[in-house]
Amino acid sequence: MIRLATVSPCYNEEEVLRHSVERLTALFERMMSEGLISKDSMMVFVNDGSRDRTWEIIKELHKENQYVRGINLAHNAGHQNAILAGMMTAREWADAVVTLDADLQDDIECIPQMVRHFEEGNDIVYGVKVSREADPFMKKFTAQAFYRLQNQMGVESVYNHADFRLMSRRALDMLSEYKEHNLYLRGLIPQIGLPHTTVNDVISERYAGSSKYTFGKMMGLALNGITAFSVKPLYVIFNIGLLFLIIAFIIGLYVAYSLIVGTAVQGWASLILSIWLVGGFVLTSLGVIGTYIGKIYTEVKQRPLYHIQEILD
């Protein structure tokens, strides 16, 4: 039997915590009766700077429930950093760690399958979303578009996988060697290269409240995922620049020909269009290059990703 830990980042999740703990407790006890996990397994909740009663509820549940442990971050470090803080702490307590969101929209019935795959020798087991009927249309559309864009940009990732996964202690030890500040776990973990497999994850609706992962945060994560693992945007800019030079050369030949044959007509439309087109491309190029320079600036400072204020163990 393995000692299992689940890790769930929490940001303003007071409405769902007690219900989630009840469901996980029932699952833990069933898995223990089946001999899949040991009785000292645990569920770890990471409070990521919540502004509601999330941390107070975690402390209450820690006193009431023998399986509940808590990590309180000193400030809001972000979803990816909160997951990392939970994993790096829980790897000292458990043989394997399963990460999942506190609202339990992921199918927790996949966890027994993950444990079995772990016992078969897989260090990483990814939960792959086979149904997203519970997600709003815009979230489904943008997520699938992003996965396709990732692949085109050369980012190695598991299609339709978010952050629902099992990792062995060995895999977590290897992950701890990556010191990146622009953290994108979905692209980082596949680079570890240990034996892995997948399970089918059917997303369900939230029990209560609404998702705290806003569209802006999703866009930020998408941008981070592409720029942290691919330099293709820079090559795209270079190729477009070459195309502009070719177009400018052709226009120059046309202008010279018009002057020679006397058909040149003065006008402002083509001039204005060219200015806006080239100006827009230059500004966009500067923005992309600036994004990469900004990430270099963040990385070289090597500031801590998070600070842990308190641990309930």
Overall radius of gyration = 25 Å
Side by side, the strands of the main sheet go 7-5-6-4-1-2-3-8
Sketch the major β-sheet.
8 strands, mixed
Assign an overall shape: elongated
Structural class by sheet pairing and helices: alpha/beta
Count the DSSP helices.
Answer: 10
Number-wise, the strands total 8
Distance between the termini: 21 Å
Strand content: 15-25%
Encode the helix/strand succession as letters: EHEHEHEHEHEHHEHHHE
Q: Spans with pLDDT under 50 lasting ≥5 residues? A: none
Q: Summarize model confidence as the mean pLDDT.
A: 83
Task: Kindly state the percentage of residues in helix.
Answer: 40-55%
Walkthrough of the structure:
By secondary structure, the chain is an alpha/beta fold. 50% of the residues lie in helices and 16% in strands. It contains 10 helices and 8 strands. Strands 7-5-6-4-1-2-3-8 form an 8-stranded mixed β-sheet, with helices on both faces. Helix 9 runs antiparallel to helix 10 (269-301). It is elongated. The mean pLDDT is 83.
